[in-house]
Amino acid sequence: MPALTLTLASKITDAAIAAARMQKFAPMAVVVVDAAGHVVTLQREDGATMIRVDIALGKAWTSAAMSVPTRDLVGRAKDNPGFFNALMATGKGKFIPQTGAVLIKDGDGAIIGAVGASGGTGDQDEQICLTALAEVLDGAH
Questions:
Q1: In what order do the strands lie in the sheet with 101-105?
Q2: Were 125 and a residue from 45, 58, 100, 141 both cysteine, which residue would form a disulfide, CB within 3.0 to 4.6 Å?
Q3: How many CB atoms are located within 10 Å of the residue 4 CB?
Q4: What CATH number did the domain enclosing 24 receive?
């Protein structure tokens, strides 16, 4: 798979929004970042509240920064609050260790970015990200 292009990132956000509509989830925001945490593309559905983009971005940025799905960080944050408070301060508001973002990997398993969502529960947010990657990348995530 090539690098994370705008075309690929747009396919991922399109597929995530479509998955949210199929499941009749609340209006969502979906953000794709590259491996350095820079926004490649984002979508905010009509009716999604204004904070949703920031939360989706924070989840995606956190996943890329820590090289893990954000689900893996929830327990770690509870077990080590001092360290995670330092990470949140260092991230200047972008570090959000909450379920709802997963890594995007190339065919060799190298991390090329992350996708994060916000609007539903953390599980719903994560589900649409995973569904999108399965559809667009044939399950490579």
A1: 39-44, 29-34, 111-118, 101-105
A2: 100
A3: 23
A4: 3.30.450.150
